[in-house]
Amino acid sequence: MAGLVFFKVTSGEIDRQMRNPIRSVRWTNDGVAGGPDSIAILLAWLIGGNNYARWRSGDDKDELYREILAEFTRHGITHRERSGIIQLGR
Questions:
Q1: pTM (2 d.p.)
Q2: N or C: which end of the chain has fewer CB within 10 A?
Q3: How far apart are CA 67 and CA 25, in angstroms?
């Protein structure tokens, strides 16, 4: 993924994303500074390692949400929250 911009992620930022409500922003065009959009980041996370198997199994979903939110934040996307991921996954 050449040319991606990465940002420092703190635990507080991820916790804030898991708590605070957001306004609706399309998953397909919210990339920051020419970076990937939310759906591309989510799909890349799902195909990475054994993440898809972890998602489909009974693994701790809160931990998985934190990992996904950390990926969003690394790419400068800070408006996503856990509930949006849950809705998309249904």
A1: 0.68
A2: C
A3: 20
Structural domain span for residue 64:
37-90
Q: If we measure between CA atoms, which residue out of 84, 67, 86 comes closest to residue 9?
A: 67
What are the tens digits of pLDDT across the range 1-48? 455 555 556 666 666 666 655 457 888 888 899 999 999 999 999 999
| Domain contains 68 | yes
Task: List the structure tokens of 36.
Answer: 């990937």
Q: Tokens at residue 88, please?
A: 């998309």
Is 2 inside any structural domain?
no
Q: Which of 69, 71, 74, 90 is nearest to 22 (CA)?
A: 69
Q: Within a domain: residue 46?
A: yes
CB of 9 closer than 8 Å to CB of 74: yes
Q: Within a domain: residue 90?
A: yes
**CA–centroid distance for 89 within its chain:** 12
